[in-house]
Amino acid sequence: MLQRALLREDASVIGLASADPDDLALHATVTASSSLTDFGVGTMLERLPLTADAGLVLPVDPELTGLELLVDAERDTELVVELHDPELGQNYVPRRLVDSVTVPVAAGSKQWVVTGLRWTPESARNAFVVVRANEDLALYSTDGPAPGVLALTRIPLDPRAESPQPLREWTDRGLLRRGFRFRAGETAAYAPPRPWTATPARTPVRTCGSPSPSRRAREPGWSWSGRSRSRSAGSMSSPMTTSTRT
Fold this sequence. Notes:
Elements: H1 2-8, E1 38-40, E2 44-49, E3 54-60, E4 68-73, E5 77-85, E6 96-105, E7 108-114, E8 125-131, E9 137-142, E10 150-154, H2 166-169, E11 170-171, E12 182-186, E13 223-225, E14 228-230
Antiparallel strand pairs: 1-12, 2-9, 3-8, 3-10, 4-7, 4-9, 4-12, 5-6, 5-8, 10-11, 13-14
């Protein structure tokens, strides 16, 4: 009953499916003129030397395949990329190492590097991709973030003053809500099953990094998106969740 009450009040109970018979969202129909299926961040903006570890938090549903990064290489070198499972839905830090790859990169500019990382988690969730620092390499920033994607850099704390704290080390300071230029193939994270397919509808579950389902619509004409509501029946957007817990 407590969990149901929290969901009714739009509390962030991540990963908890709504089973409230009074929740009209369970029986609602949502339409859109289009949906995002090609997973990537668009317009290139600025060259960013890879002098610190870079991080990408990506929603994975049902799998992550074909991750590519746009890089410059001053000379022939190697790109080290790790894939971590944050495990807890509210986590935005790397927690469990799933895979690590080392990819040779030839000297050159603006080249797409295929990482070869693949991951099919048991359920829809975030992946935390770590690109290890290499002074011979540079990534590219974009003019804005992709929905549900976080771009971070790692700034280690002074070990003489504090013990390691991933929550404080991984930060978006300096990026100003920009992302890293990447491509990651198709994803269902932004596209719920279409009514004209045989795919059964899924129970709304709030997963970090992907668009939040509408919680409820108790009054005619009202729609809910995250913690805000509007009279418009038009598009609904989900603010990027930024709370982190280890």
